[in-house]
Amino acid sequence: MVLVNDPIRRDNDFVFNHQLEEKMKKVASPFHKSTLIAVCLALMIYTVAWAASGDLDTTFSGDGRIIQSFGGTEHGGTDIAVQADGKVVAVGDKVTATGRDFAIARYNPDGSLDPTFSGDGRQVVNIGLMDQAMGVAIQADGKIVVGGQTCNINNFCDVAIVRLNTNGTLDTSLSGDGKVITDFGSGDNGGGDLSMQGTKILVVG
Question: Is residue 1's pLDDT more than 70?
Answer without folding.
Answer: no
